[in-house]
Specification:
The protein is an alpha+beta fold and 216 residues long. Helices cover 29% and strands 29% of the residues. It contains five helices and ten strands; from the N terminus they run βααβββββαααββββ. It is globular, with a radius of gyration of 18 Å.
């Protein structure tokens, strides 16, 4: 069995009873937002594990990626300007998740020249600099690097995600982190969500897990 990944998606506005205007300092608002997200994350994890939030204990891997030290549930989360998402699985390890909005204002070409692998940049040009393709590449890079635990310690342009212009998922590898599979989703017509996981080979080859998205 390849296992299952469950992804919860929530509009960020639903988690925040307050907004920037309620805070005199942006740092205070960001701290409040971080705490609200943490509380919501812990509630979802506890509900999945049928335990109390107080029973959850967290630790961090060598490069700072958090994990549950009290339970065997694997997770990763991400938020954009408008959405929060949490991926979790009992069997699929080394999860990574990233979300972005398609209408986010980005210096597409400048970032692509800096962060895209030469092959990714070539395909993006062939796609007439399509924004959806750009965001699928970007979120795949972020999700794979988060899954690996290295994060930004790996040069983005050294990783070729091999994102296909029309396929919504695939596999990629890098000598420093190994092989990962990923799946892209377009939700709410403006949100790109990508989940990645370590692609361990079994006797039957690489097997994709079942992915369930729960939108709150």
């Amino acid at each position: 069995m390849a296992g299952q990944i469950e992804i919860h998606v929530q509009a960020l506005a639903q988690l925040l009873q307050k907004n920037k205007a309620d805070f005199a300092d942006l740092r205070l608002f960001n701290h409040y937002k971080k705490e609200q997200i943490r509380t919501y994350r812990n509630t979802l994890l506890a509900n999945q594990l049928l335990c109390s939030v107080d029973d959850l204990n967290f630790s961090k891997h060598e490069h700072g990626k958090p994990f549950l030290s009290s339970h065997t549930l694997h997770f990763n989360h991400s938020h954009s300007q408008q959405y929060y998402a949490l991926a979790m699985s009992e069997r699929v390890k080394d999860l990574g998740l990233d979300v972005e909005e398609l209408d986010r204002k980005v210096r597409f070409d400048a970032l692509a020249q800096h962060a895209f692998h030469a092959e990714e940049y070539r395909i993006w040009q062939q796609q007439d600099q399509d924004a959806e393709y750009w965001f699928r590449v970007w979120t795949t890079k972020e999700a794979v690097l988060k899954a690996s635990g290295l994060g930004i310690r790996l040069d983005l342009n050294s990783l070729n995600t091999q994102v296909h212009p029309s396929n919504q998922g695939g596999m990629c590898s890098h000598p420093l982190i190994g092989s990962f599979a990923y799946q892209n989703f377009i939700l709410h017509q403006n949100m790109v969500l990508t989940v990645a996981w370590r692609a361990e080979q079994s006797c039957r080859g690489f097997q994709f897990p079942q992915i369930q998205i729960i939108q709150h």
